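Example 3.2
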Amino acid sequence: MDNLTHSLVGALIGQAGLKRKTGLAMPALIIGANLPDVDATCTLYGIESLAMRRGLTHGPIAWLILPLVLAAILWGFDRWQAKRGKRPESRRPVQFGWLCALAFIACLTHPALDWLNSYGIRLLEPFSHRWFYGDALFIVDVWLWAGLGLATWQSLKLERQGRYFEGIARAALLGLLAYVAANLAITQVHERSDPSIGVDIAQPVPAAFWYRQTLVREGEGIWLVDGRRYGAVPLSHCDLVATRHRDPAAAAFLFWSRAPFVERAPSGGWLLRDARFAGSRGARFSVALPASACRP
């Protein structure tokens, strides 16, 4: 999911009452909810980053290490401020154990949310390179922005007024769970709507949370996306083994891709693409292949 959603979830967990456990609880929760995305720096490598993203920093080892690192930094920051006489008097005492616990909870929400879309996540990295897909939420969900954002704003407003604010945050988190469950059910319904077709992927789309784009595999590298055919030739007509060894970008793409296909490039060669991103929004998820890579 996008980082605004991750941040709102972390903030609501704090507003639900956990921020009372220790000083600097809210930074631990909000930063922790985003921390696995430190691997976003690998996007500097372009398309090769597809083999690096949502892997090691989203896996079990990171779930343990990242919260400890964050807690240590926040604990050290509190001590540093105290020594300089700049520690806010209103801040609660900072308890390292609670900082670790809250950062751990926040870090866990990140892969849980990332699993919910069709981009995928390697939940078991480095023990397994397998990709997992929830196919329940689009990567940027405006309904979550609206619901979680409104609940966070209202909870903070009530807090400033000295009124009970935890209830609305808790209700919003329960609403989030209900929304996720409903979207998982919607995906299941779309996948099983027509057994004669056999939908391989039913993926969410922007804004219309009730709709799923259906991807049906017609053959190796031939896909029907909402009835539109993608794939100029079967992948068996392409020397992908040699392509992997010759082109690191193609190797990374094939490692990441869930529904690969090739199409003719304007230059006369081929473009390696993924049917999940077959529309215009997926233009950046492609690798150019030479004309010799595939045969008609």
